[in-house]
Automatic annotation (TrEMBL), chain B:
Domain annotation BFD-like [2Fe-2S]-binding: ranges: 134-184
Residue ranges occupied by any NIF system FeS cluster assembly NifU N-terminal domain in the UniProt entry: 4-123
Family statement drawn from the similarity comment of this UniProt entry: Belongs to the NifU family.
Protein name: Nitrogen fixation protein NifU
Record-listed [2Fe-2S] cluster binding positions: C136, C138, C171, C174
Length: 400, 282
């Protein structure tokens, strides 16, 4: 069966050029970059070239790029590294819509002696910047706010946020895992102090990420061990994946215009036609301030997991913020923070494209998704006539 | 990935008996849009009180739809009293099992059936039973319902409670209350055991062994497992009970204290005062 991959915010296909770049580092150039001999030492030089490629994509200095194992590690290293380097500061500011790597880390820190302020968002998923200014205190060690949201694609005005953070004398970390490679980022003229990126969201393999640490920032290592990464991250480098990440960043830079035009056109067509064909559907997230590849739609009266199962049957890969797909019973904290009614959260579907998505694939989704919604609505006891917002329709118990 | 049996998939992709019955004899509705799943069950009965037709409508995930479809197949041809005996476990078994975290789907099926039967018998929905206080605000679950599930399915952890009735699956702020309900239910059960056991009576060796085993399974292991540890009963010789710690208990510096304050104390409390508990390393 042919399949249509529309879940690129979850992970992406590794670009064939990236695979090709990586292969020699398994069997030919397998030396340890820390070794004294040329066989290992030459690999260290290659890592520096990958560092250069990553730096170029985000407008950083290569010395500001530290390789890690993933986005979650970068987030942990950034926040914990700053807290460790500033032990007298005990306050963190973050948002209610962060990825779990930041969201749960902050929850953990709140239980362990830190004070955490979570900023809310409006119905479009946007922050109130006045609230941010008020939240930052003298005691604030770090403000961690994402660049773009993984569920809705909503982009925060990160430079404005950075200006406020700077004025108030704190540091800004941003989880840019979803933004890097999809929209232009230039850190050379930026107010961002630390930035997280992840390989597998931009057509590099899983298991590699990077953390940008602006020159001059005092940072204590998160993984303690050898002298690798300028003593900032112990552990022998994951050479093939780092080389892959470098290549993926080079490709991403080349294709940035394509994301803005080609991918966005496909996304807009997908979104518009589905909203047109399926009644009682809505868009979650700001229509303009959004990644070019992401659309998050809610369908009333039906449940997300059931939608995904039927899409899966057609070979379409998507994801949902529904409670039943979250592994717990908790529906998406992002959509809830935006005040999306429970009824719409349960029926939410996220479709995320990439530069490998085609018009044919988009047409295939447009053809199959609306009938799936219709089919589930035929099974559903709810519909327009029984439209009830949020409250319990019947609470029946007839236990003996 | 979905961990569904072939039978669940079959009933999800090809649900039986979807729709409405015109002029039904019994209707049961449970759940709500806000909760994330809801089920409306409709029954048609013949003169002798036998179910001749059953139809449903469900809002919910794959296993909710499959559970409702299975339920309609199961009740057809049964009398109401026969149908009333169907439990959530029966529904899960009919589907060759449901994933742990989806057990509440089968619970919803049984509740809809109960509601339909009550509706047919002209009973007012029995409020008093579930008139308790709402504990889980996210899913509107009362303390009475949680206690019922804890007793019915012998649940010992909050996670299990969430799997069976969703309580505690949202914001988690009610977790301490749920834990208190679990503790209270099992405390009451213990008291029942205490009453049942006449303290003066001498135990035979067989009775003693059985009781030691029961107390370890019911009162000691769940506590240790909650902290990542475990215990195994090695031998019982007269009043001497030999156990061995497992998992994290093995390394735990306070396991000696646990041995006396938990293991021995519980066994003395529930079996007989003269017991001495000793540990052997495995």
């Amino acid at each position: 069966m042919k399949f249509v991959y529309a879940d690129n915010n979850a992970t992406t296909m590794v670009a064939p050029e990236v695979v090709e770049t990586m292969l020699p580092y398994f069997t030919e150039y397998y030396g340890n970059p820390s070794s004294m001999h040329t066989f290992g030492g030459q690999v260290a030089k290659k890592i520096d070239s990958a560092r250069q490629q990553v730096a170029e994509l985000i407008g950083a200095d290569p010395g500001e790029v530290m390789f890690t194992s993933c986005g979650t590690e970068s987030d942990n290293a950034a926040i914990l590294g700053i807290l460790k380097a500033n032990p007298h500061k005990r306050h963190i500011v973050t948002s209610r819509v962060e990825h779990s790597a930041v969201y749960n880390l902050c929850k953990y820190l709140a239980q362990n002696g830190y004070h955490v302020t979570e900023l809310g968002v409006d119905t479009h998923g946007m922050l109130n910047l006045n609230e941010l200014a008020d939240a930052i205190k003298e005691d604030t060690a770090v403000v961690s706010i994402m660049y773009a949201n993984n569920e809705t694609g909503v982009i925060f005005p990160i430079e404005e946020i950075g200006n406020i953070v700077k004025q108030k004398g704190s540091l800004l970390h941003t989880d840019a895992v979803q933004a890097v490679g999809k929209i232009p980022i230039n850190l050379s003229k930026s107010t961002i102090d630390l930035l997280t990126l992840s390989g597998h969201k931009l057509h590099a393999p899983k298991g590699v990420g990077a953390l940008f640490i602006k020159k001059g920032i005092t940072f204590a290592p998160f993984i303690i061990g050898g002298h690798q990464e300028k003593n900032r991250r112990g552990g022998t480098e994951n050479v093939p994946s780092i080389m892959g990440l470098g290549k993926a960043c080079e490709l991403a830079k080349k294709h940035l215009a394509e994301e803005r035009n080609g991918v966005k056109l496909l996304r807009d067509k997908l979104e518009n036609e589905i909203l047109q064909k399926a009644p009682d559907a809505r868009l979650n997230g700001h229509k303009i301030h959004r990644l070019p590849n992401t659309t998050n739609l809610s369908f009333e009266f039906v449940e997300g997991e059931a939608i995904l199962l039927l899409l899966n049957e057609k070979g379409i890969c998507a994801s949902s913020g529904s409670a039943c797909t979250s592994g717990s019973l908790e529906p998406s904290h992002v959509l809830r923070a935006m005040g999306v009614p429970f009824t719409a959260v349960h029926g939410s579907v996220r479709l995320s494209l990439s530069r490998y998505s085609t018009m044919e694939e988009v047409d295939f989704i447009i053809e199959h998704l609306p009938p799936i919604i219709r089919r589930l609505r035929e099974i559903s006891p709810y519909g327009r006539d029984t439209k009830v917002k949020g409250q319990v329709v019947t609470q029946v118990s007839a236990r003996p | 990935m979905w961990d569904y049996s072939e039978k669940v998939k079959d009933h999800f992709f090809r649900p039986r008996n979807v729709g409405d019955i015109e002029d039904p004899d019994a209707v049961g509705e449970v759940g709500s849009l806000a909760c994330g799943d809801a089920l409306k069950l409709m029954l048609k009965l013949d003169g002798s009180g036998r179910i001749t037709d059953a139809k449903f409508k469900t809002f919910g995930c794959g296993s909710a739809i499959a559970s409702a479809s299975a339920l309609t197949e199961m009740v057809k041809g049964k009398t109401l009293s026969e149908a009333a005996k169907i439990t959530d476990n029966d529904i899960a078994e009919y589907l060759d099992g449901l994933p742990e975290q989806k057990m509440h789907c089968s619970v919803m099926g049984r509740e809809a059936l109960e509601a339909a039967i009550a509706n047919y018998r002209g009973l007012k929905i029995e409020k008093p039973v579930d008139e308790g206080t709402i504990v889980c605000k996210c899913f509107g679950v009362t303390d009475n319902k949680i206690a019922h599930e804890v007793r019915e399915h012998k649940l010992t952890t909050i996670e299990q409670v969430t799997n069976f009735c969703k309580a505690g699956g949202g914001c988690r702020s009610c977790h301490p209350q749920i834990q208190a309900i679990i503790d209270e239910v099992w405390q009451k059960e213990k008291e029942k055991v205490m009453i049942a056991k006449s303290p003066a009576k001498r135990l035979t060796n067989i009775q003693k062994m059985k009781m030691v085993q029961e107390v370890i399974e019911r009162d000691i292991r769940p506590t240790l497992q909650a902290d990542g540890g475990d215990i195994e009963l090695i031998d019982i010789d007269g009043d001497r009970v030999t156990v061995s710690f497992r998992k994290s208990c093995v390394e735990c510096p306070s396991s000696k204290v646990t041995l006396k304050s938990t293991v021995e104390a519980k066994l003395r409390e529930f079996v007989t005062d003269s017991l001495i508990v000793e540990e052997v390393s495995s």
